Amino acid sequence: MKTRLGCLSNKSDSYSDFSEFLPPAHETTARCLKLSTDEVVRWSESFDHLLSHKYGLAAFRTFLKTEFSDENIEFWMACEEYKKIKSSTKLVSKANKIFKEFIDIQAPREVNIDYRTREKTKQSLEDPTPTSLNDVQAKVYSLMEKDSYPRFLRSKMYQDMVNRAHAQGQRRSV
Fold first, then answer.
1. Rounded distance, CA 38 to CA 2, Å?
2. Range 136-160 burial, b when 16+ CB lie within 10 A, else e
């Protein structure tokens, strides 16, 4: 994953945090060719498509880190993991962890939700089920889709990725 995104990135001041995806020089060529222009461009078709593609999700997370707003995507990912938990003991533990990290007032990575949603979530987590976080997750998803996702698509980082994928595709077809 790091290699594929690294080969499309251009380390610059506008997204220097993206350097975590840069591969060792000897690995770059072979693996870079696997992320096609179509895949990168498809990320702009829908927010769902971006998040369902592991490299799209990684690029979006990196972008949000550069904007110091990655708590929303980290929360969304934590909710996705939460839904998969089968053990009621683990469900309670994970619910408490997510609440303390993202939902509680003054949480270290507090997501931007209204009072009513916070209180409703707090109540539903008193007896957690795999769907207890669905409403708050949907609100955070909607916020990212309407705000962060359009900024990502307009960002220099994403535009550079599209241009590089396109340039690599042309080189391969020659």
1. 19
2. bbebbbebbeeebbeebbebebbeb
23-46 burial: b if 16+ Cβ within 10 Å, else e: beeeeeeeebeebebeebeebbee
Q: Is the pLDDT of residue 153 over 70?
A: yes
Instruction: Kindly report the pTM of this predicted structure.
Output: 0.77
Complete DSSP assignment for 77-98: HHHHHHHT---HHHHHHHHHHH
81: which residues sit within 8 A by CB, 6+ positions away?
94
Torsion, CA 103, CA 115, CA 46, CA 54, rounded to 10:
0
The residue behind tokens 């895949």 is: 39
Q: What is the mean pLDDT of residues 34-58?
A: 91
